[in-house]
């Protein structure tokens, strides 16, 4: 029985993810303990049945995890001249122990990974080149489908060092759809600021395909609180929306010339719309509890249908502050809410939240 949940996170936020997993696992009836080292970019959570815990903790409910894997094997002291043989042997052992169920002997895809950390990034080239050799060997041995199959579990081969490899698996329907949980987005030359990448990633990560089709439509009305210089307004305009940009600071002239952005010089914490808008977004630098309180007001007063907002976290007890802010936000909206929060790749000392009333 597999006994370890393996999760990627932002380097430096291992204690936050460890605290989150420890609390959520206990509440789900699967107590365990976390092993984490600040700066290494991942957390290992030891538990009696990691597969059962993974099912009890849906990926979209986790805040500080970029990716959620069930560890299958931890291989140390590998011979650099032949890493493939011990990997194939480990898989056969897992099958014999019943950790790979009958009928699931084939994985739908192989992902080669390494920590997104200062010590892990130099392993990228090794992981990539080794994957080119491992993939055909896995297919020949019957462990990989002839073509990628998104319906089957993925096999993750994680390099933690030249002699240290972790084998893990993920459910494509309950995990991030990108290696390391990192979407590869490029800064558009017309974007007013790099903050545009945060909202682009939020819409890609916190909404599913059907929601993006239904909730991001031409000529929707949107409000951007704390909009200057216009990064988030620019993203909304790219989705065809008409935006009221609220900020006492300046906006990018090219954005205003589009004719789809009205700049209102006002305090985002005081301004309110004359009529309900479809979207409200907010990236104001302020105490997270104050932001959460104002965001709750928008839903309580029915000023918007959907929202994406950032909560800037303190330096200490960041999981505790996250939980307090999200619980207070939901309580103060006075209605059942859909709330998804994640520390995105393009976030730093913050988390991003998507919210809408339950239907």
Describe, in plain words, how this protein is organized in 3D.
The chain has two domains: 4-181, 2-Layer Sandwich (VC0802-like); 196-357, Vaccinia Virus protein VP39 (Rossmann fold). The chain has a seven-stranded mixed β-sheet. It has a seven-stranded mixed β-sheet with strand order 10-9-8-11-12-14-13, sandwiched between helices. The relative contact order is 0.11. The protein is elongated. A hairpin with a 2-residue loop joins strand 6 and strand 7 (164-170). The chain is built from ten helices and 14 strands. Helix 5 (196-206) crosses helix 7 and helix 9 packs parallel to helix 10 (318-333). It has helices at residues 14-27, 50-56, 84-97, 124-140, 196-206, 209-215, 231-238, 253-256, 288-300, 318-333, and strands at residues 4-8, 32-36, 42-47, 67-75, 109-113, 154-161, 164-170, 221-225, 242-246, 261-264, 277-282, 304-312, 337-342, 350-357. With 359 residues, it is an alpha/beta fold. Catalyzes the 2'-O-methylation at nucleotide C2498 in 23S rRNA. Monomer. Its EC number is 2.1.1.186.
């Amino acid at each position: 029985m597999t006994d370890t949940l393996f999760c990627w996170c932002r380097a430096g936020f291992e204690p936050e993810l460890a605290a989150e997993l420890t609390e959520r696992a206990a509440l789900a009836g699967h107590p365990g303990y976390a092993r984490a080292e600040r700066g290494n970019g991942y957390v290992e959570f030891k538990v009696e049945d990691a597969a059962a815990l993974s099912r009890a903790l849906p990926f979209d409910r986790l805040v500080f995890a970029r990716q959620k894997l069930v560890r299958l094997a931890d291989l140390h002291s590998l011979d650099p001249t032949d890493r493939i043989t011990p990997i194939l042997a480990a898989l056969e052992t897992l099958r014999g122990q019943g950790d790979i169920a009958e009928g699931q002997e084939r994985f739908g895809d192989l992902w080669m990974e390494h920590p997104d950390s200062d010590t892990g990034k130099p392993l990228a080239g090794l992981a990539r080149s080794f994957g080119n050799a491992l993939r055909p060997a896995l297919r020949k041995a019957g462990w990989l489908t002839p073509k990628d199959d998104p319906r089957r579990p993925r096999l993750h081969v994680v390099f933690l060092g030249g002699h240290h490899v972790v084998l893990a698996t993920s459910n494509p329907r309950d995990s991030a759809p990108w290696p390391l949980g990192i979407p590869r987005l490029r800064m558009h030359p017309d974007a007013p600021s790099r903050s545009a990448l945060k909202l682009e990633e939020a819409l890609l990560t916190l909404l599913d395909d059907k929601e993006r089709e239904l909730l991001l439509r031409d000529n929707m009305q949107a409000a951007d609180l704390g909009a200057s210089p216009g990064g988030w307004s620019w993203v909304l305009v790219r989705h065809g929306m008409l935006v009221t940009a609220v900020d006492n600071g300046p906006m990018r002239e090219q954005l205003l010339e589009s004719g789809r952005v009205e700049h209102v010089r006002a305090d985002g914490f005081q301004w309110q719309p004359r009529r309900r808008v479809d979207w409200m977004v907010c990236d104001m630098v302020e105490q997270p509890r104050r932001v959460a309180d104002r965001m709750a007001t928008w839903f309580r007063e029915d000023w918007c249908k959907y929202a994406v907002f950032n909560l800037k976290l303190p330096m200490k007890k960041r999981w505790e502050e996250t939980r307090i802010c999200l619980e207070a936000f939901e309580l103060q909206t006075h209605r059942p809410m859909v709330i998804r929060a994640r520390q995105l790749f393009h976030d730093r000392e913050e988390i991003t939240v998507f919210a809408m009333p339950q239907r």
